[in-house]
Design brief:
144 residues; alpha+beta; OB fold (Dihydrolipoamide Acetyltransferase, E2P); 2 domains; rod-shaped
Length: 144
């Protein structure tokens, strides 16, 4: 087994690099460091058990030292690009909102949506409203 250990660590290194290249997040880079540490240990005559221990220890140390840096570097503000981006925005009533008649439309961010009043009160055309939530394909709005 010991004569093949070098090939094992080279294979683990290559596999970890390929997995890392195939993903968009850091998931296997720590194994690269561990495998390189084990490979070096094997080249200097360390037994296979020692190589495995070096692999585990170096991988854990690399994870502990670099994971906070990776998390901080990957923090970004998620921008909701779907319907949720309308919540909290201001719109203008284009068709009078009347929940009892199942009528009403609001124009918001350049789009026209069916709308209902949040508290059930009618809202007249041209009034400014705030989008409280979305239920299905209808905006639930309240007067501004």
């Amino acid at each position: 087994m010991e004569e093949y250990a070098v090939y094992i660590w080279v294979a683990v290194t290559i596999l970890a690099v390929l997995v890392e290249a195939a993903t968009s997040q850091m998931v296997s880079i720590w194994f690269v460091f561990g495998a390189l540490g084990a490979l070096i240990t094997g080249l200097f005559g360390g037994g296979f058990l020692i190589q495995v221990i070096v692999f585990v220890v170096v991988t854990i140390i690399a994870l502990i030292l670099t994971r906070p840096l990776v998390k901080n570097a990957s923090l970004f503000k998620k921008e909701d690009t779907n319907a949720g981006r309308y919540v909290g925005k201001e719109g203008i009533v284009t068709v009078t909102i009347n929940n009892l008649e199942n009528e009403g439309q609001v124009s918001v961010l350049g789009s026209t949506w069916s709308a209902r009043s949040y508290d059930g009160t009618p809202i007249e055309e041209n009034e400014h409203v705030v989008i409280e939530k979305i239920e299905g394909v209808k905006l639930i709005v309240s007067k501004k």
